[in-house]
Amino acid sequence: MAVSGMDNIVIQTHALTKTFGKRTAVNQLHIEVRRGEIFGFLGPNGAGKTTTIRMLLGLITPTSGSISILGRPVTTEHTEVLPRVGALIETPALYNYMNGRDNLRTVASMFGPVDERQIDNVLTIVGLAGRQRDRVQNYSLGMKQRLGVAMAMLNDPHLLVLDEPANGLDPAGIVEMRDLMRNLAAIGKTVLISSHVLGEVQQICTRVAIINNGILIREASVDELTRGQGIYVVFVERVAEALALVQAQPWGAQAVVNPQGALMTAAPNGLGRELNTFLSQAGYVPDALYYQQETLEQVFLRLTANPGGGIR
Ligand SMILES: Nc1ncnc2c1ncn2[C@@H]1O[C@H](COP(=O)(O)OP(=O)(O)O)[C@@H](O)[C@H]1O
Ligand SMILES: [Mg+2]
Q: Ligand 1: does its nearest atom lie under 6 Å from the Cβ of 48?
């Protein structure tokens, strides 16, 4: 298939909106997911992630706005589009008394003759080939989630939509899920993965959209969101007085005191030594002063607590 500019766009929403009674769950959302991306769809609980995903999958109808997937409008052409999309929404429905392979066979048989080679394929991709004969009731939660991803891949979809696939997993399960996401990207799949836990996806996502209260706060690469967004951490006596002084400066308006009692602030001209000099001359000689790069989690908390605040 020729890959032109438009073909590179896998999901595009335009002013996508969903209301439930008086509540607007998704509000004028514009997102764009490109071919081969691991796209993180991030926001706190209740932000509107699952509602958006259900609209993407044609499970519920948008109140207004539009969605196209692989260049086709989902609302009118979902029978064309949806066979090319695999999805896992929260926890997969599994038969606990069956083994992993038989679970896949059962699902595959709903769509037609079972292709055993494709079952081998998806088991290998999700790393369950060695455990395919074990009953699912003996699987860890992480293995069950990966079996859910395998189910979503049975029809070899171009796009995978995974709603909170790491929810409830232990740290080992999260690592396995991340490895799986990387495998999917390596074999050319496009993946949309939602999460309310930022640290989970920071390392694997190429780009992210952050939503809160149904509204898009920011869509950008992880690098763009975290680059140059560092902050100085200062331990100083009489921190409340120092905070008030710093907040009165044009460069320090966003300063706060963190729960550990450290002053968190930008520096004059972005330079730590100027911050040090400023505080020292004002009589607040720092006990310690260091620079901390913001994590995606901190960016997210800042953007969702105060949309517009501190966005470059
Ligand atoms: N079927 C529904 N009926 C009424 N309100 C709903 C329904 N589904 C979701 N909501 C509301 O829409 C908002 C977004 O929910 P949801 O999309 O599940 O958020 P998230 O997946 O980001 O946690 C929430 O306030 C939720 O209570
Ligand atoms: Mg959800």
A: yes
Strands lying side by side in the sheet with 288-292? 256-257, 263-265, 231-235, 288-292
Tell me which amino acid residue 229 is.
Answer: Q
6-225: CATH topology: Rossmann fold (3.40.50)
pLDDT tops 90 at residue 28: yes
Ligand nearest to the CA of 167: 2
Q: Which ligand is closest to the CA of 44, given by its number?
A: 1
pLDDT for 228 equals 66
pTM for this one?
A: 0.81
Cα torsion 73, 76, 80, 86 to 10°: value is 70
Supply 184's token pair.
Answer: 């999917």
What are the contacts of 166-173 at 24+ separation with CB within 8 A?
A: 166/195, 166/197, 166/200, 167/90, 167/91, 167/195, 168/141, 169/141, 169/142, 169/145, 170/140, 170/141, 170/142, 172/142, 173/140, 173/141, 173/142, 173/145
Q: Under DSSP, is residue 165 helix (H, G, I), strand (E, B) or coil?
A: coil
Please give the distance, rounded to the nearest whole angstrom, from the Cα atom of residue 51 to the centre of ligand 1: 6
- For ligand 1, atom 27, name the residue with the nearest CA: 46
Q: How far is it, in rounded angstroms, from Cα 262 to Cα 285?
A: 13
What is the H or E stretch that residue 151 is in?
helix 141-152
**pLDDT one-digit tens code per residue, 282-300:** 999 999 999 987 777 778 7
Q: Which residue intervals of the chain bear CATH 3.40.50.300?
A: 6-225
| Residue 182 neighbours by CB under 8 Å, 6+ apart | 38, 204
What pLDDT digit, counting tens, does each position of 221-265 carry?
988 887 766 789 999 999 999 999 999 999 999 999 999 999 999
Percent of the chain with pLDDT over 90: 67
Q: Is the CB of 22 under 6 A from ligand 1?
A: no
